[in-house]
Amino acid sequence: MSKPSITSSLSQPPMPLIDQLDYLGNPLSSARQVLTQHPDLQRIDGTFEDLVHTFSFLVSYNGSTATFNSYRREVERLLQWCWLVRGCGLGELKRQDLETYIHFCQSPPKAWVGSKQVARFKNCLGERTANPDWRPFVNQAIKADPQARTAFSLSQKSLQALFAVLSTYFNYLLQEDYLRINPVALIRQKSKFLQRHAYQEPVRRLSNLQWDFILETVEQLARERPAEHERSLFVMRLLFGMYLRISELVADERSTPVMGDFHTDADGNWWLRVVGKGNKARLVTVSDDMLAALRRYREHLNLPRLPYVGEQTPLVQRLKGRGPVTSTRQIRYLVQSCFDQAFERMRSQGLEDEAQELRVATVHWLRHTGISEDVKFRPKEHVKEDAGHASMATTDRYIDTELRERHASARHKKLKPEL
Fold it and tell me: Phi/psi of residue 309, each to 5°?
């Protein structure tokens, strides 16, 4: 069978292949549906069986939407490269091909890189249709500088995820007797891709000035359009003030966050029960300011000022319809919109340089910022428990006193020492 043109495959963005869990049928029907939508793929040997085994692998992670999404991302990228660029099925891949693929991911073609996270598929007249704005890779720096496309590269964290997920994927295909080798396992010198740092990577966070502008912006939006933005203000305060991850705000297979998760102890102290990474539940302390923010949001919803035991009101409600928000993408879009509007306010006030980071900031920066601020004055053991860190070493990353002192001692070094 003929292979696709590599030139055309690199100059055009690929279309998404794998929908959300809720829209997947059994592996056979899902594979047939993909090939019906993309008949050109049938020209490549093995695509149907590749898809059937891939869908079987992915649906086994239906217990966690976050895990499914991360595995889907890596597997889908590989299939698109394998079929559209390499022009072969999974069974033909060798170690050298995987090394070529990793180099491809480190510097993908411009057409494969987008500036923001968007849904793969949309609902259109009752049908699921591919979103033309979706791209396999995302570089948010493109928003700030369109030329940044040429400088895109995967971070070390993303490369580590690539190796881990694809190794698990190929091991599954081995156990199913679909493949004979795991090409990832054959890459002996992973060190040429994965760097080891002799220093601690800095935590990406917002400056106090940036956070002040963000908070003022969202407060103004809440005053002007409360029906939409009282929720925005509450979400931003949760993410910063309680270091929550976006996955801890939405309803999924693990849990549905509700107002009843806020509760008091025998001393009248307020806590929030959160189900986080690894399906582990933890208690997060609720500060006086956060309790006031909760009261404000509940008054907006015409609820009693404070939650009661067993209350099932969703923690973050949909704006349209009833029920909880179920997609992290909705929270991500909400936060990104707040960042963008704060950026415009800062720039309009002549703070162009200080504003630039808001063009590439992500939701997780709010969690990083909240933790970084708290470790300055709270016992780090308390911050560790509230953040849900598995070890103190993770919390220690947010303590930058040593770096500050080190830089201060070097600030006045002279390039021409005095005699």
Answer: -60, 130
Is there a domain that residue 201 lies in?
no
Domain that holds residue 354: 208-404
* 162: helix, strand or coil: helix
Distance of CA 22 to the CA centre of its chain: 19
Same domain, 230 and 152: no
In a domain, 341, yes or no: yes
Do 346 and 398 sit in the same domain of this protein? yes
> Rounded to the nearest 10 degrees, how much is the dihedral formed by the CA atoms of 321, 325, 331, 334?
10
Residue 200 lies in a domain: no
Note the pLDDT tens digit of each residue in 129-163. 999 999 999 887 766 565 545 556 777 788 888 88
> 210: exposed, middle or buried (C-beta count within 10 Å: 0-12, 13-18, 19+)?
buried
**Per DSSP, what are the bridge partners of residue 277?**
none
The distance of Cα 399 from the centroid of its chain, to the nearest Å, equals 24
Residue 188: predicted pLDDT: 61
pTM flag (> 0.85):
no
Which of left, alpha, beta for 74 (phi over 0: left; psi -120 to 50: alpha)?
Answer: alpha
Let me know if 154 is exposed, middle or buried by CB neighbors in 10 A (0-12, 13-18, 19+).
middle
Angle between helices 328-348 and 208-224 (to 10 degrees): 100
Three-state SS for 45-86 is: CCHHHHHHHHHHHHHCCCCCHHHHHHHHHHHHHHHHHHHHHH
Q: How far is CA 380 from the centre of its chain?
A: 26
β-strand partners of 271: 263, 285
Q: Which residue has the tokens 């979706």?
A: 134
